[in-house]
Amino acid sequence: MGGQAGGRTGWRAAAHPCSGAGRFRRRRIVCVVPAAVALLAAVASWPAAPAGASSATVAVNAGSLAFATTPPNVSFTATLTGLDKTVTATQALDVSDATGSGAGWSLTATSTTLTTGGGTTLATTAVTVTSAPSSACDVGATCVVATNGVSYPYALPAAATAPAATKLFDAAANTGMGNLTATVTWSLTLPASTKVGTYTSTWTISLASGP
């Protein structure tokens, strides 16, 4: 037949790339692909490197319990009208509890008698607190507002020599932590017969640990 020579066709069988020989012509072939695939599989199966182990510590040291600012003076102003009258004045008591103990704290107060210095005095019961002081965290302090257990009205002790102090305000355990201000509204009762003059008194306000 015209398309054949010597009974053989004009084509050759292709050899497998890794068989090493074809049907009609021998040739040497080095096969590396399977080995490369095996290496990649081994690399993929290696375990991931463990994360580095570390720790952190925080040392929190105790501060102190004190007034953040000195208690301010209290000033009353009254104009006589011929009738009994009551005037008020506020006092902001700024407490800093940086102890971190949660022990709570208390404010106590006492005073000397209001007097003109010339023998004229006001009653020793003239100054009171009729309702519970308000309290709020200071600016920049995320505090725990005080839970106050004092009952009102409160009468400020007074005598020629200051008597024993009594509790004005307190913070129960685990409250009053951080910086906060308790604002006290003081009331002064003046009878219609009060004499004119400038009256002064020494007030002592103390801060102590525990409610």
Brief account:
With 211 residues, the chain is mainly beta.
Description of the structure:
The protein has 211 residues and is mainly beta. It has two domains: 14-45, no CATH class; 65-193 and 201-209, no CATH class. It is built from one helix and ten strands. Strands 1, 2, 4, 5, 6 and 9 form a six-stranded antiparallel β-sheet that branches. Strands 3, 7, 8 and 10 form a four-stranded mixed β-sheet that branches. The longest helix is centred in the N-terminal third of the chain and has 12 residues, at 33-44. Mean pLDDT is 85; it is low at 1-14 and 17-43.
The major pleated sheet works out as: 6 strands, antiparallel
Succession of helices and strands: HEEEEEEEEEE
Number of helices: 1
**Overall pLDDT, averaged?**
85
Summed up, the domain count is 2
SS content category: mainly beta
Shape: elongated
Using the CA coordinates, give the radius of gyration.
46 Å
Distance between the termini: 122 Å
Strand content: 25-35%
Number of strands: 10
Q: How helix-rich are the residues, as a percent range?
A: under 10%
Low-pLDDT segments, ≥5 res = 1-14, 17-43
Which descriptors apply to this entry?
single chain; about 210 residues; mainly beta; six-stranded antiparallel sheet; four-stranded mixed sheet; 1 helix; about 5% helix; elongated; disordered N terminus
